[in-house]
């Protein structure tokens, strides 16, 4: 059984998308990041960077005591290794998938997150920051579009943890003030992932 420390945000959905896709049983422990629950000592013991998502696996592969993990990319990689699913065993495709997973956690997520912040939450209007993060977000969506013009999924022919990591952020394109008419390959890919039963269940969970 997996405990999932979660809030319904793009980073939170990454893990429920994976768990629904592979059918691994899990229990959601909601963390209200609006009221500061991420700073409680018991949560910090699992996720010292005070951010969701985090998991605790009570049945690790080595049969030893539970393992806790924070950082969505590390969690997805752990779960893919544990289940043998959603990460190719072919060395070339696996490498492609891992590149795009790291691209998402290092760039796509953080930059779109800043774009969202300066467009919607900043206590003052900072045109330099709005322009900088808007431009960077557009550049990254264009990189995504260019890749998806070449392959059906981000890391090649198969749906993988690279798509799972990127989808919840790309799905928020309206909040990012990004018009998908300019990125048709991204639009087609989003529609394809949206239709997966696991995606619908993950988003219906909260
Ligand atoms: N690099 C982290 C980012 C996680 C993250 O930014 N989580 C946000 C919600 S989407 C959070 O928990 N924020 C609470 C806070 O910063 O106090 C990951 O990929 O897991």
Automatic annotation (TrEMBL):
Belongs to the GST superfamily. The keyword NADP does not apply. The keyword Signal does not apply. InterPro entries: Glutathione-S-Trfase_C-like (IPR010987), Glutathione-S-Trfase_C_sf (IPR036282), Glutathione_S-Trfase (IPR040079), Glutathione_S-Trfase_N (IPR004045), GST_C (IPR004046), Thioredoxin-like_sf (IPR036249). The gene is yfcG. Residues 90-206 form the GST C-terminal domain. This is Putative glutathione S-transferase enzyme with thioredoxin-like domain. The lineage of its organism: Bacteria, Pseudomonadati, Pseudomonadota, Gammaproteobacteria, Enterobacterales. Residues 1-87 form the GST N-terminal domain. It comes from Xenorhabdus bovienii str. kraussei Quebec.
């Amino acid at each position: 059984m997996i405990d999932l420390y979660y809030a319904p945000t793009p980073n939170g959905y990454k893990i429920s998308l994976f768990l629904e896709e592979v059918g691994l049983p899990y229990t959601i422990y909601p963390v209200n990041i609006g009221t500061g629950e991420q700073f409680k000592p018991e949560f910090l013991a699992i996720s010292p960077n005070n951010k969701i998502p985090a998991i605790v696996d009570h049945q690790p592969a080595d049969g030893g005591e539970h393992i806790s993990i924070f950082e969505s990319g590390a969690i997805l990689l752990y779960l893919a290794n544990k289940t043998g699913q959603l990460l190719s065993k072919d060395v070339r495709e696996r490498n492609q998938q891992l590149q795009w997973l790291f691209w998402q956690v290092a760039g796509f997520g953080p930059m779109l997150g800043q774009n969202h912040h300066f467009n919607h939450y900043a206590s003052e209007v900072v045109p330099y920051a709005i322009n900088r993060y808007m431009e960077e977000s557009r550049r990254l969506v264009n990189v995504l579009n260019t890749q998806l013009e070449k392959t059906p999924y981000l890391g090649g022919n198969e749906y993988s943890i690279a798509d799972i990591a990127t989808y919840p952020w790309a799905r928020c394109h309206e909040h990012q003030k990004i018009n998908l008419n300019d990125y048709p390959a991204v639009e087609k890919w989003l529609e394809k992932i949206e239709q997966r039963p696991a995606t619908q269940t993950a988003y219906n969970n909260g």
